[in-house]
C-alpha cells in the first residue's frame, strides 16, 4: 500500500553548488503540492538556501521526514543511506552525477516522476547492508555500515598484503594479493564489477568476495550466503586499509581482524512505476548498444 507523504527532505551532493537549481526547483514544486519541505543543513549552506526553506540535520530528517529525495550521484546516495538507515526513511534518487545505479531518476524527468510517486505510483525495495568492524587484540577499534562494499587493500604501499580468510570460524585459505572486496548485491555493480566480480540481483541473499590481483591463478570470486560471518586476519608484517563505500577509511595494522556480517538494518529505496533492474543495467552498462562507427 502506498504511503502518504507529508514532510519531504531534500539532500544534495556534498558541498556542490551545481545542484542549487535542481534543489530549488523541486523544493518549490513540493511546496506547491502542499508538502512540508526541509533542506538538509549542509546542502542548504553549500548552495545558499539558508532562510528560504526550513533546514534540518540528518538526525532530524531521520526522526520526522516521511521521504528523502537525494540529488547527486551514487556517492551522495551511499552517504545518505548510511546516515538514515537507522530510521528507515525511504529514499528517492535523482541523478545529478554520472552512472547513477542508485539514483535512477533522470534530472529531466524529476518533477514528472516525483509527481507520480507522490500520488502513490511507485515500487519499494529493501537493500541489504554490511556490518563491518576491526578487532585489535580482541577489542573493537572500528565499526561502521556499508551499502556497497567493504574493501581491504594494501593502502598506500605498493606491495601485496597477506591474510587468512575464515568463514563462520572455518579457515578457508591464506592469500597474497592487493586485497579483497566484500560486496553486497547493491555494490556488485561498483568496484567489484571492475575487479571481474559477479553481478548480484538485489534480491539475492548473498555477499560476494572478490580478490584484488591475487598472486594465484586459481583465486576466484565466490558468493556466500549473507548469513555468514566473514573474517580477514592480517598476517604480519602487513598493514592494510579498510575502505567502506569508497568514503570511510580505517588504517588496520598487522594482526588486526576485519569482520564482516550482514547488518540487521536495510535501506528503503523507492522507484518510479515501471522501474526495471535489467533495463537499468542495459542503460548503465551499455548492453546491446549499437557499435560506434569509426
The coarse silhouette is globular
User: In terms of structural class, how would the helical and strand content be classed?
Assistant: alpha/beta
- Distance from first to last alpha carbon: 51 Å
Total strand segments: 18
Question: Biggest β-sheet: count, sense, barrel?
Answer: 6 strands, parallel
Whole-number mean pLDDT = 93
Radius of gyration: 20 Å
Number of helices: 7
Low-confidence stretches: none
- What proportion strand? 35-45%
What features would you highlight for this structure?
18 strands; about 290 residues; 6-stranded antiparallel β-sheet; 7 helices; single chain
Commentary on this structure:
The chain has seven helices and 18 strands. The protein is an alpha/beta fold. Strand 7 and strand 8 form a beta hairpin. The longest helix is centred in the N-terminal third of the chain and has 13 residues. It is globular, with a radius of gyration of 20 Å. The termini are far apart.
Summary, kept brief:
20% of the residues lie in helices and 40% in strands. The chain is built from seven helices and 18 strands.
Write the layout of secondary structure elements.
Blueprint: E1 7-12, H1 20-32, E2 36-40, H2 41-47, E3 54-56, H3 58-64, E4 67-72, H4 74-84, E5 91-95, E6 105-106, H5 110-118, E7 122-136, E8 139-146, E9 149-153, E10 161-167, E11 170-177, E12 179-183, H6 191-194, E13 206-212, E14 222-225, E15 230-234, E16 240-244, E17 248-252, E18 257-272, H7 277-285
Parallel strand pairs: 1-2, 1-4, 2-3, 4-5, 5-6
Antiparallel strand pairs: 7-8, 7-18, 9-12, 9-16, 10-11, 10-15, 12-13, 13-14, 15-18, 16-17
Amino acid at each position: 500500500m502506498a504511503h502518504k507523504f507529508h514532510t519531504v527532505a531534500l539532500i544534495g551532493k556534498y558541498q556542490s553548488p551545481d545542484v542549487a537549481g535542481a534543489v530549488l526547483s523541486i523544493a518549490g514544486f513540493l511546496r506547491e503540492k502542499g508538502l512540508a519541505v526541509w533542506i538538509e543543513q549542509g546542502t542548504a549552506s553549500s548552495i545558499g538556501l539558508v532562510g528560504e526553506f526550513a533546514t534540518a540535520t540528518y538526525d532530524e530528517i531521520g526522526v520526522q521526514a516521511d521521504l528523502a529525495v537525494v540529488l547527486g550521484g551514487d556517492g551522495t546516495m551511499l552517504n545518505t543511506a548510511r546516515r538514515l538507515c537507522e530510521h528507515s526513511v525511504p529514499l528517492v534518487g535523482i541523478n545529478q552525477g554520472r552512472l547513477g545505479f542508485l539514483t535512477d531518476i533522470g534530472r529531466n524527468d524529476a518533477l514528472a516522476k516525483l509527481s507520480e510517486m507522490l500520488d502513490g505510483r511507485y515500487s519499494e525495495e529493501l537493500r541489504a547492508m554490511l556490518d563491518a568492524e576491526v578487532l585489535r587484540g580482541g577489542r573493537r577499534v572500528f565499526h561502521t555500515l556499508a551499502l556497497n562494499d567493504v574493501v581491504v587493500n594494501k593502502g598506500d604501499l605498493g606491495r601485496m598484503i597477506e591474510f587468512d580468510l575464515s568463514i563462520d570460524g572455518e579457515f578457508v585459505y591464506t592469500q597474497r594479493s592487493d586485497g579483497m572486496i566484500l560486496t553486497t548485491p547493491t555494490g556488485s555493480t561498483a568496484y567489484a564489477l571492475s575487479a571481474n566480480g559477479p553481478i548480484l540481483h538485489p534480491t539475492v541473499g548473498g555477499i560476494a568476495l572478490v580478490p584484488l590481483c591475487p598472486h594465484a591463478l586459481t583465486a576466484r570470486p565466490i558468493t556466500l550466503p549473507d548469513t555468514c560471518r566473514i573474517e580477514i586476519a592480517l598476517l604480519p608484517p602487513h598493514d592494510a586499509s579498510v575502505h567502506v563505500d569508497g568514503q570511510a577509511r580505517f588504517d588496520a595494522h598487522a594482526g588486526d581482524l576485519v569482520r564482516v556480517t550482514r547488518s540487521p538494518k536495510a535501506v528503503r529505496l523507492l522507484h518510479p512505476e515501471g522501474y526495471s533492474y535489467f533495463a537499468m543495467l542495459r542503460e548503465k552498462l551499455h548492453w546491446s548498444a549499437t557499435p560506434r562507427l569509426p
